[in-house]
Amino acid sequence: MNKSEIRRQLFARIRALQPIERADHSAAIRSWLERDPSFQKAAVVFSFLALPGEPDLAPLVEAFPQKRWAFSRVTADDRITFHTMRGIGEAVMGSHGILEPDPTRHPEASPLDADLFLIPGVGFDPMTGTRLGRGKGHYDRYLSVARIKPLPAERVGVAFSIQCLDLVPEDHDIAMDRIVSEAGWA
């Protein structure tokens, strides 16, 4: 099965989740993260503002204001960048119709500053850490830069358990160190 077909199947699984299930699963994921030693010690967390169907991590920002939070946005030239924000309420509707940091108000953060990456995806392989994204390679390109740090930040894939499956990694794929879902850590 090719990546496009796998994505279609995974998106169908995600759409089949009821809103209350997504909310409950998101709360469970946040609970796993809150208790995780890597999350607890991370001073700088690079995260995401959830697209429809993605786990909602926004309450973590409010619960941990002492951390420096950076959130992703896609630029006009189709790159991903991260910008620091104090709270989710500072996000604006971006050109792609999704909430994102305002680059005129929120400074861009260097990937080398991150202590922890919380990364969404369409699918994840818990055995290999392989991540299947939306097909543009934004995170793989960005994370390849972050890997040059002497002690690279941990990469945590964030997903619902229905998004976990066997995937064949490709040479350009940047593997996750761990994956968290409502079912726990993989």
Task: Tell me what the structure shows.
This protein is of the alpha/beta class. It has helices at 3-16, 19-34, 37-41, 58-63, 138-146; strands at 44-47, 68-74, 80-85, 92-93, 99-100, 108-109, 116-119, 123-124, 131-132, 154-158, 178-181, 184-185. The chain has a single domain (3-185), classed as 3-Layer(aba) Sandwich (Rossmann fold), CATH 3.40.50. The chain is 27% helix and 23% strand. An 8-stranded mixed beta sheet has the order 6-3-2-1-7-10-11-12. Strands 4-5 form a two-stranded antiparallel ribbon. A hairpin with a 5-residue loop joins strand 2 and strand 3 (80-85). The two termini are 24 Å apart.
Topology:
Layout: H1 3-16, H2 19-34, H3 37-41, E1 44-47, H4 58-63, E2 68-74, E3 80-85, E4 92-93, E5 99-100, E6 108-109, E7 116-119, E8 123-124, E9 131-132, H5 138-146, E10 154-158, E11 178-181, E12 184-185
Parallel strand pairs: 1-2, 1-7, 7-10, 10-11
Antiparallel strand pairs: 2-3, 3-6, 4-5, 8-9, 11-12
CATH architecture: 3-Layer(aba) Sandwich
Low-confidence spans: none
Mean pLDDT level: 93
CATH class: Alpha Beta
Structural class: alpha/beta
- How many beta-strand runs? 12
Shape: globular
CATH homologous group name: NagB/RpiA/CoA transferase-like
Output the strand order for the largest sheet. Answer: 6-3-2-1-7-10-11-12
Number of helices, counting only DSSP H or I runs of 4 residues or more? 5
Major beta sheet summary: 8 strands, mixed
Level of helix content? 25-40%
Write the CATH fold name: Rossmann fold
Distance between the termini: 24 Å
Oligomer category: single chain
Q: How are helices and strands ordered from N to C?
A: HHHEHEEEEEEEEHEEE
